[in-house]
Amino acid sequence: METVNPYYPQLFTPLKVGSLTLPNRLMMGSIHTGLEHRPDGMGRLAAFYAERAAGGVALIATGGFSPNKAGNLTTARVEMSTEEDARNHEVIPRAVHEAGGRIVLQVLHSGRYGYHPDIVAPSAVRSPINRDEPHALSVDEIEQTIENYACSAELAKSAGYDGVEIMGSEGYLITEFLSLRTNHRDDEWGGDFDNRMRFVVEVLRRVRARMGGNFLIVFRISALDLVEGGLTGAETRRLAQSAEAAGADMLTTGVGWHEARIPTIAQAAPPAGFVWATENIKGAVSIPVAASNRINSPEIAEAIVAEGRADIVMMARPFLADEKFANKARAGDRKAINICIACNQACLDHYFEGRVCSCLVNPRAGFETKLPVVQTQVAKRIAVVGGGPGGLSCAVAAAERGHSVVLFEASDCLGGQFNLAQVVPGKAVFADSIAYFADQLDRHGVAVRLNTRVTADSLRREDFDNVVLATGVTPRAPDIPGLDHPSVARYDDVLAGRRDVGANVVIIGAGGIGFDVAMYLLEGGDRSYAEPAAFAKSWGIDMTLSNAGGLQSKGRPRPVPARNITMLKRSAGRFGSTLGKTTGWVHKSVVDVNGVECLAGVVYERIDENGIHILVDEGRRCIPADTIILCAGQDPRRDLEGPMTGLGHTVHLIGGACEASELDAKRAILEGLETAIGFNEAG
Ligand code: NAP
Ligand code: SF4
User: Which of 90, 326, 456, 546 is the most exposed place for a label (fewest CB within 10 A)?
Assistant: First the structure.
């Protein structure tokens, strides 16, 4: 019998779920990886999940697989509906079991959220995030769909899965039956709440009847809908009880329909910010309940279980960021955990762009078979110049492979642009990434030389085999007359606290950094967004759960902005459209609610003591400003390249030093890893 874990005692206490006893309270929640429909997808998924199972997570839920054609998320077929599907899947549970883990197949019917011509729903009510109106299911089609769920479960079992997770949150088909927002039926499948629950209850009953007692049935319940017409807290509790009575072994939770206009997993949402909604369910049932959303560290997870707020903690993205999360926590090696920074940039944004889901801080995720970090046969001396995300990633991976690495950083600290980002609301967690990489440098024996500005000559004297220039970027100075006026400030000086900022601000540029600066200034140093209650208040969430959907009846309150801000850009088009698909709308929403004026199609004329003079559609304007902040993009900093190649050195440029436009940490970290993997063994 295992002794009490000295580091996270509650997290590493076994949990009985149905007929299984899980070794700990960590579950990897479902995430669509974009591999599900690819020809090589099953093998890659097997490797992906097996690494996580070997990393110690107790239970995994796959990405969603539809029980029938109508339930697919897109035109790509991602189903568990035929014998052939089951045979194709066998490799996944086998690999997970061999790695010592357990895995359930998520059965997800997209309902009106599918992006294909055959979408269905309880009623023909179009979703605000889908152009197409769904076909309203007939009674016969409802019966057929329930049968499809049961068949899917049977096929999952025959493929070797330990169970299924029936997806009933986030606004998909099951939630659509439950909510008056989407269920306008007047037959036995609509109307009062018992009728609206009938669909999911029948699904769960049918699956249980078909599968018997030794097959795990997890029901993912919407703890909080966050849409008008959604469920109240009392209805959610009744639903939880009905699901238990119908045969569910465990309830996992989801928060917010996809069409909700409140962030639930973005950086704007506070850590563990929705566990209070899970507690509403936990008190109503006797089966285990999982908490989810914005939980990214073992200490947060431990506290949730220790305080009895949930029985198990379900995280998805943190297991992308670190497949060994659970084992490292068990060993008390917290520093070695690569923490998810909730950016969505390489996971959800990739999925919605039709790309394979990966992770900004761990680009190997989803590419386990394509980016192997193997020991080198020929150890080399490698110089990495620049201690930002790209340089850190490269130095760690190269040293992990057995190379001898020296990392040079001109400033007195590691982290580069991540240091600036830390002050932006929701981005304090970037400090964890820097700490992680710094610790890895240490473990892999990288020699770190801070406060060292190298030259081509100094590098040559040390006779490195390879030099990696990860020297990053320098803020672009736009060509506007009057740029030397005292009101003008660079964004890095503002974020670093080197410049005072007045009450009337103009931001030039509306890319990621323009918005970051706006968030920083609007917050005005108030960190209360990090508290669930303050977050709920500011986004109009009803924490008493008495109102439908958990929304305040008066809507979202308008804050008193900390500053009067105007954002400008030269291009036409929507503000925020160049930001991440799953996060840009959050930034734009904060900017809007704070009354920020956003002007596109601007021509900059000059800056003087009156402010900034521009030409826009309505003609010439002067916008008075105490501070005009330049967020006009970046230029690459690669002055070492010429001298180094001139001396005959092999130079690798990565990250912003290579290409500053559309620079982001995701590309820099990936390029760092790829460069380290690709060092030519022969010299
Ligand atoms: P960016 O996204 O390329 O935006 C630069 C902005 O400056 C644009 O709005 C552009 O708009 C304007 N601009 C460009 N050249 C200009 C010039 N010569 N004069 C005046 N305005 C000019 O760059 P960034 O904001 O510096 O961000 C750098 C990278 O970090 C981006 O790739 C970004 O995605 C990433 N980042 C991401 C996030 C995030 O939340 N995901 C946060 C921070 C940074 P016009 O050309 O229309 O004027
Ligand atoms: Fe987390 Fe960002 Fe990685 Fe997604 S890409 S798992 S949000 S760190």
Answer: 546
